[in-house]
Amino acid sequence: MPPIVAIVGRPNVGKSTLFNRLAKRRKAITHDRPGVTRDRLEATAELDGRVVTLVDTGGMDFDAPEGLDRQIVVQAEIALTMADVVLFLVDGKAGRTALDDEMAERLRRVGKPVIVAVNKVDGEERIASLTGDFHSWGLPLMPISAAHGHGMGDLAEALAAALPEKQDAPEAEHLESGLRLAVLGRPNAGKSSLVNALLGEDRVIVSEVAGTTRDSVDTELKRGGKRYVFVDTAGVRKRTRITDDLERDSVGKALSSAKRANVAVVVIDATGGVGVQDKRLISYLDKERTPFLIAVNKIDLIAQKDMIALRKDIAEELRMCSHVPVLYIAAAKGKGVAKILPMAEALWKECQIRVGTGALNRAMREVLDKHQPPLVNGRRAKFYYLTQASEAPPTFVFFVSDTERVRDSYAKYLENALRKLFGITMAPVKVVCRGSHKPRE
Fold this sequence. Notes:
- By secondary structure, the protein is of the alpha/beta class.
- The protein is built from 12 helices and 15 strands.
C-alpha cells in the first residue's frame, strides 16, 4: 500500500477542493455549504515523485452530538489512525478559531508528522497577514490556495519529505481484478448498510437521515483471490424534486458511477414497495443496457403474509426486463447478503458471452422460420445475416432490407429467441437492426 496522507480540518475550510487539486481530478463534491463531505474518500496521487493515497474527511467538530455529525468525526478519526502524514487545513481568511486550536493540540498527540496548510492565501503579498495567527502552534506551515493552485508545488514537496522512507516493497499480493459494483437506489433504501454488510465493517456512514451519502465512495474488498470495488452512491430521487444543486451533483455522480460499474445493484426498500423513482431507475438502467440486479432490502420488517404481494409487485414491475435477477435481503442483519457477489459474478460472466457468426446465422434462420416478421404496408423486412458486434452487453446486429419494417415487438421477439437459444438468462441483450441491400457474400 502507498503511504497515506489524511486531509483534516474543521468544516468548510476547503478540504475537498484541496483533495481534488492534489488528486488532479474532481473526485470529491465541493460546495460552499459546510459539511458536504461525510464519508472518507480515497484517491491515488503523486506528490513530488512519491505515490500516495490521499484521504479526504468530513469536517471535525469535537462537540458534535451523537448521530450523523458524530459519525462524521469518527470516520475522520479513523483516517488519522491510518495516516502516515496528516495535512491539517485551516482557513487563512477566516483566521484561527478555537476549534482550530483544539485540533492542533490533538494532532500534536497523534505522534505523526503534521503539516499545516493555510488555505485561501491568493498571493505572495497576503502571506504574512493571513498566516501570522497560525505560527504559534509551532507546526510546519504552508500558505496555499486550493481553488487557484497557488503553493501546490511547495506543499507536495513538503508532504513528500515528511513521508516515511521508501522501503523494499514486500512480495506483491497477486489478486485478480474483481468486479466494480455500484450500489444505487432511493434515499434511505439501505445502500450504505448493504455496503458495510458486504465489507464486514462500518466503512460508510449509516443514518436515518435521508441523503446521508453525497459523494460516490469507492471501497475495496479482497475475497477469494480477487479485489472487488463497491461504490456507495447518493440516493436517487425524481429529477423534478431536486431543487438543490448539491443534491443534483450527488445524483449525477451516482448515475455516472452506474455507467462505469461492471454491475449495478439497485436497492429497493421493501417497506415502501416499488416506488415511482425505483421504476424510473430500473427503466434507465434497462435502456442503457447496464447489467444490474435488484436487492429488495429490509425484508425483516415485512410480515410473512405480505411477502407474496411484494414478490408479485416486483415481478410485475420487471415484466419488460424479466431477465433481471432479484434477491431479498436484510442488510442490517446480514441476511441474504452473501448471495450478492456470486449473483453479480454470474451476471457479469453472461455479459462476456461470444457466439460465432456461423452459429448465429443458423439460429437466425431457425428464429425466422418459426415466426416471420410481420407485414408492414404490405411488405416484410428481409433479414440477410446476423453478427455479434460486442460484449458487455452482448450486442447482436441484424442486417435487413428495411429497418422501418422491423417493429419494436418483433425486435423483442428476436431478443427473447436469442436468449433462449444461447442461455442468456440474466445479462442485458442489445438487438440492433441495420439497413443492407444485399446478403453478405
